[in-house]
Amino acid sequence: MSLNSPTIPPETARHVLWHYGAEGGYQPGSFTQRLLDAFAAADMVNTAKLANAYPDYAAAFMAASLDPDGIANLQRIATGEGPLGCKCGDTAGPLDLKTGRCETCTEAAA
Fold it and tell me: Does this model's pTM top 0.70?
């Protein structure tokens, strides 16, 4: 898994949604809560360091905080529907943060 095409599992999406107080969130354990707090406090250099160890949380956190459709995408991933713009509902393939689609739908659109 890389930051260029990270996979955001439904559980990770639910944890990040909880951090933002968004519908569909699920409270993670204490370590993950602290990890999300670290992402929230980190500058770009430290975000990159955290992303090396936790690329799925980095992708989900960056989507929620930087993408206007990020929360909606995470809500769809959390329920297993796939991200916005995804026609197949595939949540197993990497999410392309530029298109908001899974890898399968991104390749099909090309």
Answer: yes
